Amino acid sequence: MSSTAPPAPERVFAEFFQLECRARAAKTSETLAWSIVNDGQKLFGFRHVALIINGRVRAVTGVSVPDPHAPFIAFIERAAKQLIAGQHAGEAGIIQADWLDAQSQRDWQTLSAAEALWVPLNDRHGQLFGGLWLARDTPWQEAERLLAQQLGDVYSHAWLALEPRKAWQPRLPKLKILAAAVAVIVVMLIPVRQSVLAPAEVVPLGGRVVTAPLDGVIAQFMVKPNQPVKKDDLLVRFDNTVLKAQADVAERALDVAEAERRTGGQRAFQDADSKSKLDLLSAQVEQKRAELNYARDLLQRSEVRAERDGIAVFADAERLVGKPVRTGERLMELADPRQAELKIELDVGDVIPFPADAGVALFLDSDPLHRHDAQLTRVAYEAAMTPSGLLAYRLDARFVNSTPRIGLRGTAKIYGEYVPLAAYLFRRPLAALRKTVGL
């Protein structure tokens, strides 16, 4: 007893169920794409199917790897963009010729079948990310359209499980791209004021540097940092034990020399030889007197006094007390607290042309929200090593209004000439590229 053939609806349901199972079982997007464009032949009887994902053809019936430069591929991608532009790609439907431009209609006649059905591929939010172009020679029926739409939902779910992606946004027309490029170029040509940042410090203006007057050991600092002083106030006292001994010895040597000269003078009346030695004894007296004056001068220098009114600017007295110093070594600076300037250390890599009286904005580390305005007065021609080990140029600036306290540090912003925005943004990258490639 032979079995009878199942009715047509049952065959359709069996084919649809088999296609759905193959889509769910696909392990890779390539396997799924091959199944989408080939396995539905028995159900729909199409000539060919093209799978479009985000504007690009990913698979075509009977082709293992689509050639992106093939005429048929270019036609399908251009037609899909026109369907989106005409708002015909949101739902499954039979494609009308008047939806496409004249060139696409001619390509359709030569490259594809007469009857084409569009099936969209949407994500869970209803956003289009791809579609199917199904073409055959016989007209599409409404039942087939509904069946293809349902199968498109199955393919969408399977594809997103393998390749999650954003919604399909068609590329901008060439005119819009050109307009955007022109807008970017115009924006890059907008003149902006160039500026650089550099560490800065508030230093005395016209201060008097106090240096060590002799080689010796500092016994005591008589003032504290930032302490106001008057003229002739005692600032630093050196250890004068040796100097006092030298002065005492020089004084006694002078007494001896003067006594010898007096004795020689008395003998000169009776002895001709003693008379001839008077000049030598007088010279020895003068020598000893000079040594005594020098010793007393050194003893007097052991106490360093202020030469002007101001404040004593130095970091730490304990760093020098009890240690030997050389003549001319800096001890402190006497400055007027109402007169200060800004010292800027600009890295050699940040140097730009500065106009005369360029503007400077200082933001102190202790008060970063308050701006202090200044004007550039000097730019050093030669770079020098800073205490931090960087090679930098020194810049000096005068404050315009309020003067911060001497010794405060912060960041200075120095304004240069007006340049195009492109030069402002890409100056450092271009300089680095030039150093790398040698252009």
UniProtKB/TrEMBL annotation:
Localization terms from the record: Cell envelope
Gene3D superfamilies to which the protein is assigned, alphabetical: 2.40.50.100, Helix hairpin bin (1.10.287.470)
Major location (coarse): other
Keywords: Coiled coil
A cellular component term, taken from the record's GO annotations: cell envelope
Name this polypeptide is given: HlyD family efflux transporter periplasmic adaptor subunit
Lineage: Bacteria, Pseudomonadati, Pseudomonadota, Gammaproteobacteria, Enterobacterales
